[in-house]
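During the no-cost extension, the postdoctoral fellow (Dr. R.K.) reprocessed legacy sequence entries with the updated structure-token encoder. One reprocessed record is reproduced below for audit purposes.
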Amino acid sequence: MSLPPSSPSALIIDPEAIDNLRSLSPDDGDVFLREILTIFLTDTPERIADLHSNRISGNTAAFIRAAHSIKGSSSNVGAIELRALAEKTEHHTRLNGLGSIDQHVAEIEAAFTRAQAIIEKIITPN
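Re-encoded structure tokens follow.
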């Protein structure tokens, strides 16, 4: 599946990032692309769980690392909305600590769900 640049999905997943990943191994029938996207879909819920557990335990440094990890992996796969929210959360936490962070985590979870739905369509062969 290719995303048209003007589609609403392109606001969630950057079609150029998907094309760039695809171009890294153009002759493999999207095997590499599916592998990278599957790792993202597996790893991100673990990082979101880290956000929750580190918020509860009050471990600000580990919370920031988890948000930073989500930001980086989202950037790699073109999850634009999720990357922006993770960056905002990382920045907010650096400045303000873990107080009033629940809404940020909820936004990250919702953005991941939207990205996941689109990515699953990309990696599922027709």
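Helices lie at 15-23, 31-57, 60-77, 80-96, 102-123. The two ends are 8 Å apart (CA to CA). The remaining legacy entries will be reprocessed before the final report is submitted.
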